[in-house]
């Protein structure tokens, strides 16, 4: 697979093979700002272009007959918080029973792949570890691809346990993360926060315990350590911590670091092609066979459209039908459903 540099020239790198994952992953890309993403993030031209309004899928039989692989987002499609959405186990079981391959690709970095497998099991869903791809995995894979370990540098983490667990698997040293959740910088007269000059990358993932210490430490590393990479697991504006309401997403954390550094992050989660290119290459799948199903226009649906997949929007998550049909929305799926339970055959 050819690698075309997409990040800024000052941060160019030599792609590296990922021994334990194989095949190679593509490079991550600079941020794209569409739809509900933070207004502080600059707009870039995306591949997806304005199109006619999507129609509601009233009979899934034709879609299912021409699709061999379904990629499902998790939050808002499979579950909300820790609550399973109605009809999901039956839908997944049905698709598998008729020979369809299923993958789960989530932008949520709070868990590793192993952590997500435990959540699937707890919710009574049948899933295999190799079917699950999280943005914490994508961040680790990006570092492996770029030969980060060979630099002798370490990573500073804003994020929860998922990122450290994935970095442990590739033996990349790190600091921060959950260990810094209770720390406070000395802001008395003359106070300063000392940072590690050996930090060569800052990964910003969703962090329910983000604080001023973490923000200051991250900006010092990015601003003062030559060549330090700024990596974002995702730019989701909101997320589902509970099934009662939407909560501020990782776009808030990334926005804070962008604001104090003036730097653009390298995005490894959706809509970056990193994870889909890995799946296509590893499992020898044609993109025309794949349908991306998600609840977000600016990540899931854009991920599908930019990467040559068919796409279905599920209204069980953050996007409403009104938002989908708003004249200002220029990201349209091929069709939409109330939830993926609509894939089940009609009785």
From TrEMBL:
GO terms for molecular function: metal ion binding; phosphatase activity. Gene3D superfamilies: HAD superfamily/HAD-like. Transmembrane segments: none annotated. InterPro entries: HAD-like_sf, HAD-SF_hydro_IIA, HAD_sf, PGP_euk. Substrate binds at residue 270. Divalent metal ions. Mg(2+) is the most effective. The active site is at residues 73, 75. Keywords: Hydrolase, Magnesium, Metal-binding. Mg(2+) binds at residues 73, 75, 295. Its cofactor is Mg(2+). GO terms for cellular component: cytoplasm. This is Probable 4-nitrophenyl phosphatase. It comes from Chondrus crispus (Carrageen Irish moss).
């Amino acid at each position: 697979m050819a690698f075309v540099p997409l990040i800024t020239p000052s941060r160019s790198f030599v792609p590296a093979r990922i021994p334990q994952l194989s095949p190679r992953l593509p490079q991550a890309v600079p941020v794209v700002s569409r739809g509900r993403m933070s207004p502080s993030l600059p707009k870039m031209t995306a591949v997806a272009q304005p199109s006619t309004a999507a129609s509601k899928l009233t009979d899934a039989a034709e879609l299912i007959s021409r699709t061999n692989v379904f990629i499902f987002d998790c939050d808002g499609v499979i579950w909300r918080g820790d609550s399973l959405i109605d009809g999901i186990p039956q839908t997944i079981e049905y698709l598998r029973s008729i020979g369809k391959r299923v993958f789960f690709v989530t932008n949520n970095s709070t868990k590793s792949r192993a952590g997500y497998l435990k959540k699937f099991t707890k919710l009574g869903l049948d899933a295999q570890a190799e079917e699950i791809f999280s943005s914490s995995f994508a961040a680790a894979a990006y570092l492996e691809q770029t030969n980060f370990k060979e630099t002798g540098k370490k990573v500073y983490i804003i994020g929860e346990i998922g990122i450290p667990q994935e970095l442990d698997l590739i033996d990349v040293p790190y600091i921060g993360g959950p260990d810094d959740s209770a720390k406070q910088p000395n802001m008395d007269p003359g106070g300063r926060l000392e940072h590690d000059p050996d930090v060569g990358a800052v990964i910003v993932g969703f962090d329910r315990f983000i604080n001023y210490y973490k923000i200051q430490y991250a900006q010092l590393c990015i601003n003062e350590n030559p060549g330090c990479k700024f990596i974002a697991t995702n730019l989701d504006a909101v997320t589902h911590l509970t099934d009662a309401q939407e909560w501020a997403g990782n776009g808030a954390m990334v926005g804070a670091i962008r604001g104090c550094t003036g730097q653009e992050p390298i995005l490894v989660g959706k809509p970056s092609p990193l994870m889909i290119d890995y799946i296509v290459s590893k499992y020898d799948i044609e993109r025309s066979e794949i349908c991306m199903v998600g609840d977000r226009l600016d990540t899931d649906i854009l991920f599908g459209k930019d990467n040559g997949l068919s796409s279905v929007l599920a209204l069980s998550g953050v996007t409403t039908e009104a938002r989908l049909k708003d004249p200002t929305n220029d990201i349209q799926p091929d069709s939409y459903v109330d939830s993926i339970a609509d894939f089940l055959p009609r009785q």
